[in-house]
Amino acid sequence: MGLRGRTVKSVLTKAAACSVVALLAACSSSSGGSSSGTTAAPGTTAAPGTTAAAGTSAAPGTSAAPGTTSAAPGTTSGGGSGGGNAVDSSLTAAQCGAPASGGDGKPITVGIITSLTGVASSSFSDVKTGVKAYFDALNAKGGVNGHKINYVVADDQSSPTSNLTAVKDLVENKKVTAIGVWDSFLFGSVDYLLGKGMPLLGGSFDGPEWGVPKYSNMFGVVGVANPKYPAFSSFRDWFKSKGVTKVASLAYGPSPSSIGSAKGSAASAEQAGAKVVYTNYNVPFGSTNFTADAIAIKNSGADAVIAPMVEASDIALITALKQAGANVKVPLLYTGYDPNTLNDPAAAAAFEGAYIVGTYPFYDGSNAAATAQMANLKAAGYTKDIPTFGVGGGYTAAMAVACGLQAAGANPTQQSIIANTRKVTAFDGNGVFLEKTDFSKQFDGIGSFDGGSLCQNWVTVQSKQFVLDTKQPLCGSNIPGTETVK
Predict the structure, then answer these.
(1) What does DSSP say about strands 355-358 and 455-462: parallel, antiparallel, or unpaired?
(2) Which residues of the chain does CATH 3.40.50.2300 include?
C-alpha cells in the first residue's frame, strides 16, 4: 500500500531504503512540538515537544519554512516551497460517527509506533512529520470531541524485539489510550497488546494477524489482507496487460507480509498465464546485495520481477539486474512513488522503466482530499509536493487514531474505541484513500495481499517523471483456490 500520485516530478520517500513494504531513502522530519508531540526511543521518556535519542539517534530532522508552489495539473515537481494555513482535518460523521459533546475535555495521549532508525528507517524515518501535521491541524480545530490530542512517536529500531520494548513503554509509562501503526515489525508485540486491550489503528502491512479474528483490537485503514494471501484479480489483469511470461519473485525472510505479498503477486501472474521461474523468499531485511539473485534471474529468463521490499533494496535489486544484463521488462515494486526517488540520481536511474503499485490517489491537484492533506503538511513545514511513504503513513496513522477516538464517544476509553470503531463502515481518510474501509468486515478475508486494498494504482517512471500507467484504479477480488499460505 505504498503509492500516491498521478504524473509527478518528485523524489522518493525516506521510508523505504531500509524498510519492509515501504518507500525509498530520503529522511526529513520534524519534532512534534506544536501538538504536544514527543519522540522516544524504546525505554526512554521524552518531555512533550522534544525528541529523545537514548541509545539511538532520532530520524534526521529538517523543518523548512512553509511554502510550495503547485505544479500544473498532471505533474508534480520534486521540490517546492509554498504554504498556507492548516485546513479542517475533522472526520465526517459518515466516516467515524457523529462528534460527541459533553465530555470532560481532558487531553488524550496516543502513541504512534514506527521505525525511525534501523534497517527500515529509509522508509519510516519521517513518519513523525505526518503525525505532527495531522494532529496540529486537528487540534487547531478543537481536537476530537473537545479533547486535545497529545502524541508520542515510538521507535522500534526496525526490530520485532525492540518493537515490544517500545510499545511496552507506550502502554506502561506513557499511558496511551490508543496506538497508531505505521510499522513493519508490529507482529513482535501483537499478543502483548491484545492482552492489554490496546486499540491498534493504521497500516496493516506487517503480517497476517490483522485478519485473524483473535486480534479484535486491530483496525487496518485500507483493508486487511486475507491471511492466506491468495492471488488477486486486479494484479492478474495487470500482469496480463503487460504480456508477462516468466516471473521472478523475491521477499524478505523475516517479514511475513513481504513473503505473503510476493507469493500472492506471483500467484496472480500465474493466473495470467505466466510461469514462476525463480524465487528467493529469504532475503535479509533491508539487503542491498543482489548480485547472485540478478545472475540467477538472468539465467532463468524472467521478464518480470516482483519485489515487495523497501526502497534501498529496490534500488539495489534493479541496479544489479541491469548490471547483470537481465532482460527484465516489468519490475514490479511496492515502494518508490515518493518525492525523493526522482531527486536522487541513483534512485531515478534505477527506477527508470519500473512500475510501482499502491493504494493512494495521485497528487496532481485533481483530488480535493489529497490537496487538503498537502495543505496541512505544508503548514507543518513539509516542502515536497507529494508525501513520502513515511510522511503519508504518519498522517494516515494519526487520522486512523482520530477516527477511533471520534467513534468512541464523549470520553474515549480503550474498550469504547474498539467496540465503536468496529461499527465504522466507510472510512476513506477523508477521501485520501481509493476505497472505503468497512472495519466490520475486517475478518471476512476479502482484502488483497497488498495490505488489504481492493483497488490499486500503478505508475511508472519515464524520463525521470512519474507517469500514470493505469488510466484509473484497478479494483478486484481474491481468486478462490489460489491460497499461497496454508
Answers:
(1) antiparallel
(2) 37-226+363-441, 233-362+454-475
Interatomic CA distance for residues 198 and 208, integer angstroms: 18
Rounded to whole angstroms, the Cα distance separating 196 from 178 reads 11
**Is beta strand 108-114 parallel, antiparallel or unpaired with respect to 149-155?**
parallel
Q: pLDDT tens-digit profile of 415-448?
A: 999 999 999 999 998 888 989 999 999 999 999 9
Task: Name the amino acid, one letter, at 10.
Answer: S
Q: According to the model, what pLDDT value does residue 39 have? A: 65
Cβ-contact 249, 473 below 8 angstroms: no
- CATH number for the region 233-362+454-475 comes to 3.40.50.2300
Under the banding of pLDDT at 50, 70 and 90, the label for residue 8 is: very low
- Phi and psi dihedrals of 44, rounded to 5? -120, 160
Q: 37-226+363-441: which CATH topology?
A: Rossmann fold (3.40.50)
- 96/98 Cα distance (integer angstroms): 7
User: Per-residue pLDDT tens for 219-257?
Assistant: 999 889 999 999 999 999 999 999 999 999 999 999 999
3-state SS of the chain is CCCCCCCECCCCCCECCCCCCCCCCCCCCCCCCCCCEEEECCCCCCCCCCECCCCCCCCCCCCCCCEECCCCCCCCCCCCCECCCCCCCCCCHHHHCCCCCCCCCCCEEEEEEECCCCCCHHHHCCHHHHHHHHHHHHHHCCCECCECEEEEEEECCCCHHHHHHHHHHHHHHCCCCCEEECCCCHHHCHHHHHHCCCCEEECCCCCHHHHCCCCCCEEEECECECCCCCCEHHHHHHHHHCCCCEEEEEEECCCHHHHHHHHHHHHHHHHCCCEEEEEEEEECCCCCCCHHHHHHHHHHCCCEEEECCCHHHHHHHHHHHHHHCCCCCEEEECCCCCHHHHHCHHHHHHHECCEEEECCCCCCCCCHHHHHHHHHHHHCCCCCCCCCHHHHHHHHHHHHHHHHHHHHCCCCCHHHHHHHHCCCCCECHHHCCCCCECHHHCCCCCECCCCCCCEEEEEEEECCEEEECCCCCEECCECCCCCCCC
